[in-house]
Structures are given as C-alpha cells and as structure tokens.
C-alpha cells in the first residue's frame, strides 16, 4: 500500500514540476498519469500492490470531490443571482457534450471496425 | 460549559474535525444511498455535500476551518487521477485500435460542451464572471480552476460548476445513451470523460472497465483541448 501510494505521489510530483517548468497546458496529475502509463508499458503491467491501492482510490473517487464540493457554501450568492442561467446552461451543455462525443465516437469507430467494403454506411 | 468551550477551540485548530466529519458523513451517505436504491439523486457525493454544507452553515463554521482537515481528502484527487493509468493500461490495445475515432469525437464534444455552456449562460443573463467560470466546467477540477482564473472567472466558482456538471452527467448518461442507441462502452466512457470528467468516469468504471479506461483517456486529452480552446472562445465574450 505504502509503496504504491509513494509511486502515485511521485508520478504526480514529477508531473507538477514538469507542468510548471515547461509551461505545459496540462495539470500535474494528468502528466503523472502519462508517466505512470509509460512505466506500466515498460514494466508490462502493475504489481499486485499497485493494482489494489490504485483501484481502492478509484472506487472512492466520489469522496475525494466532497471537500471541494462543500466550497459551495462560499458561493451561494453567485448561485442565487445566476440560478436561471445555470439551471439551463449546465444540463443542456452537458447533454450536448455527451451526445456529440458518443455519436461521433460510435459512428467513426464502427466505420473503422467494418471491413473495407462496408465503410460507407 | 467552559470545558466544552475549550474542547471546541481545540477541535477548531486541529485538522481532526474536518477530516473525521468528512469520512463519517461519507460512510453515512454511502449506506443511505444504497438504501435509497442507488438512484441518480441518491449519489453519495451529492448527499455528503448537502449534509456537510448544512452542518457548516448550521454551526456557523467557516469553510476555511473545515477545509483545514478536509484538505487531506482533497489532496488524494491528484494520486487518484494518476491511478487512472491502471484501467487505461489494461485497455491499451482497445484504445490504440480506436485512436482515429477518439481524437475527432473528443474535439467535437469538448467544443460543443464549452461553447454551448458559454452561449446559453450569456443568453440567460449570467454575469461575465459566471460565464467565464462555466467555460471549463467539463474538465478535471485543478485544470478548470486554472483556466477560469486565466480568462477572468472565479476559481472556487469553477470548482463548484465542475462538480455540478459531473453529477449532471451521471444522471443524464443512462437515458441519453439509451435514446441515442449508444451501446458501445468505448463511446459511453469517452463521452462520460469529456462531459463529466473524473466523477462520471469513476461511475462508469463501476459498470465497465473499458468505459472507465476510455473515460480516463478523455479526462487527460480533454484537459489539453480545453486549456487551448477555452481561452480562444473567451475572446468572443466581452466583459
């Protein structure tokens, strides 16, 4: 558990440093993800410990958003003043984003999986 | 009485209270939501935020005092994001095979999500700060806060919008995918990651590891696309 957690934190640390040093438009944890992925490819997979710890963290992803979410109590005025725009813009734009991504992906992926003769569906 | 007062003063200065209450409320919310049948509104995260916010407002505790302890939970967002490399690794060959579909789908979804949010919010009278804080709402919290700050939004407001968006995506995914006849878990996962970042991805991971892997990929790529795209879009919206 401790080894795996150390590895995850070190990957994130290198990511944060790289993001600031190189001025990358990527957040540190995402660069850390890329580093870990590279490491997994090099080592041909995670060990049991990393697998267990990583999946334990991923199972409780929702908990990790709670502290930031409680920050809503400092934003109540802004939410109250703009409630109509938010009630319309957030669900509709989320729906539009979901639908666009899924439709384009499914359409192109199907075209690619199909044998050459059937591509023009 | 004086003893209680001293105890309270002590507890307010240690991270113990904020950390402990977050974990306890989360456990309560998890059991509550499974008793409510895991419906879309019975989300343990939403329940926890509602319970904790009410507690803080009810006791007049400032958010900064709470966050002193809760920051240890918040910190784990980083390592957990790194851990998304695990489902991505197990689905590497699938991701490679779909690479040519992933890039256009991601760019289209990212553009539509950000632009429609900005246009709609602007149209329905949101202030400039709110429009700019909404623009990066589909990406993971740390990058959304950074983008919002850069284009004249409010980072903490952006964090709240990121969260509401993730919850909204979780609620919308099952019906949307059914209506659009999207059965492919790769497409569902990618859409969850593009429109609903880590929160929707983690939920998809419970359904399918493939969806989780494509979601994790989408979070990373969408972070890059949004960081480049949104500042450009922001120039069309005058303050």
Task: Write up what this structure looks like.
The complex is a heterodimer of chains A (121) and B (239). Chain A is an all-alpha fold and 121 residues long. Chain A contains six helices and no strands. Chain A has helices at residues 2-22, 28-43, 48-59, 61-70, 76-81, 83-113. The longest helix of chain A is centred in the C-terminal third of the chain and has 31 residues, at 83-113. Mean pLDDT of chain A is 85; it is low at 114-121. With 239 residues, chain B is an all-alpha fold. Chain B folds into two domains: 2-75, no CATH class; 83-234, no CATH class. Chain B contains 13 helices and no strands. In chain B, helix 11 packs across helix 12 (185-207). The longest helix of chain B has 26 residues, at 209-234. Chain B is globular, with a radius of gyration of 19 Å. Chain B starts with a helix and ends in a 5-residue tail after the last helix. At the A-B interface, helix 1, helix 2, helix 3, helix 4 and helix 5 of A face helix 2, helix 3, helix 4, helix 5 and helix 6 of B.
What integer is the average pLDDT of chain A?
85
Q: Could you say which overall geometry of chain B the principal axes of the C-alpha atoms support?
A: globular
Order of helices and strands of chain B: HHHHHHHHHHHHH
Terminus-to-terminus distance of chain A: 50 Å
Shape label of chain A: extended
Which structural class do you get from the secondary structure elements of chain B?
mainly alpha
The percentage helix of chain B is over 70%
């Amino acid at each position: 558990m401790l080894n795996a957690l150390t590895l995850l934190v070190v990957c994130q640390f290198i990511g944060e440093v790289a993001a600031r040093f190189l001025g990358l438009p990527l957040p540190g944890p995402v660069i850390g993800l890329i580093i870990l992925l590279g490491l997994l490819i090099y080592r041909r997979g995670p060990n049991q410990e990393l697998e267990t710890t990583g999946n334990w963290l991923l199972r409780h992803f929702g908990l990790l958003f709670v502290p930031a979410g409680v920050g809503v109590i400092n934003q109540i005025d802004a939410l109250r003043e703009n409630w109509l725009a938010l009630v319309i813009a957030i669900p509709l734009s989320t729906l539009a984003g979901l639908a666009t991504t899924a439709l384009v992906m499914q359409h192109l992926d199907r075209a690619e999986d199909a044998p050459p003769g059937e591509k023009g569906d | 009485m004086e003893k209680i007062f001293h105890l309270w003063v002590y507890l307010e200065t240690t991270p113990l209270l904020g950390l402990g209450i977050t974990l306890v409320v989360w456990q309560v919310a998890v059991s509550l939501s499974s008793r409510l049948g895991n419906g879309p509104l019975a989300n343990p995260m939403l329940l926890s935020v509602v319970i904790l916010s009410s507690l803080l407002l009810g006791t007049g505790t400032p958010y900064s005092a709470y966050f002193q302890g809760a920051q240890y939970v918040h910190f784990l967002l980083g390592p957990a994001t790194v851990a998304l490399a695990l489902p991505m690794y197990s689905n590497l060959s699938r991701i490679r095979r779909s690479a040519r579909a992933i890039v256009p789908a991601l760019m289209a979804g990212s553009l539509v999500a950000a632009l429609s949010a900005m246009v709609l919010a602007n149209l329905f009278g949101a202030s400039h700060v709110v429009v700019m804080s909404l623009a990066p709402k589909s990406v993971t919290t740390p990058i959304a806060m950074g983008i919002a700050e850069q284009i004249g939004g409010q980072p903490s407001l952006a964090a709240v919008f990121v969260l509401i968006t993730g919850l909204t995506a979780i609620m919308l995914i099952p019906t949307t995918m059914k209506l659009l006849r999207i059965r492919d878990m790769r497409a569902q996962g990618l859409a969850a990651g593009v429109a609903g970042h880590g929160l929707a991805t983690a939920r998809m991971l419970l359904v399918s590891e493939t969806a989780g892997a494509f979601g994790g990929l989408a979070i990373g790529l969408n972070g890059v696309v949004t960081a480049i795209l949104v500042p450009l879009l922001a120039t069309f919206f005058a303050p």
